[in-house]
Amino acid sequence: MVRLAGIIGLALLTVLVIAYLLLLRELETRTLQPQSARTPSPEPITWIKVQDGRKIAALYFPAPTPETYTVLYSYGNLEDLAGKRKQLLEFHRRGYGAIGYDYEGFGSSEGESSLTAALRDADAVYQYLTNVCKVPPERIIAVGFSMGSGPACYLSHRYPLGGMVLEGGLASVLQVIIPWSGWPGDHFPNSSWLSQSKVPVLIFHGTKDKVVPYRNAEKNYREAAGRKQLVRVPGAGHQDILKVLGEDRYFQILDEFFAANKTPTAVGAP
Hints:
Layout: H1 2-30, E1 46-49, E2 55-61, E3 70-74, H2 81-93, E4 97-101, H3 115-132, E5 140-145, H4 149-158, E6 163-167, H5 173-177, H6 190-195, E7 201-206, H7 215-223, E8 228-233, H8 241-245, H9 247-259
Parallel strand pairs: 3-4, 3-5, 5-6, 6-7, 7-8
Antiparallel strand pairs: 1-2, 2-4
């Protein structure tokens, strides 16, 4: 009888492990998706090669001076570069350089979408900025909205940066659903990456966010090892942070936070 119970327990454990692995696989390919009708990437397109030889489309507005910060922008699920062109132009109008890109499988970019591909794409854009455009790492600010917080935190974990901004960012993919961390194989472990990076991070999050609950912002703020600021936006949901806060106030906070870097030094993971 004891032996039978042990066999049944082992079988149930095996089923749970298989189900968990299948869930992770599903999240890898289904969490970051383009809209059903793909919109071509906006002109003028800058083509950037990723590690596997595929090309992704980017939109680049160079910084007005070498001393100016350049924003490397990563968007969220069901978005595309065409829909973010206005926001990139606003960064540029406010005095920043700006580059955005379509993930593989989005817009005019080649390949198929996945969480792994998104990280590979962000890596390629960073390399393009630093190696081709000669933008110093200490002058790059990685900005990530929603799922785009994954590529932004990944860059801060892997490379030196001048800073990072998270808008409605997640602590990890599973922590959007479950308020506990430490799940093996979890995707976009942002809070863990932040704990291993000294990159200054500015966090904006709506208190009424029902897509990525506010607890994710609190977790990221607690774990961040570098200089940090959490901007709580009362009444804002997931998509209306800028609208509720106001663009002028958003850029005032942004300018003040990065003005504290009197002599910017690129920092990253130890």
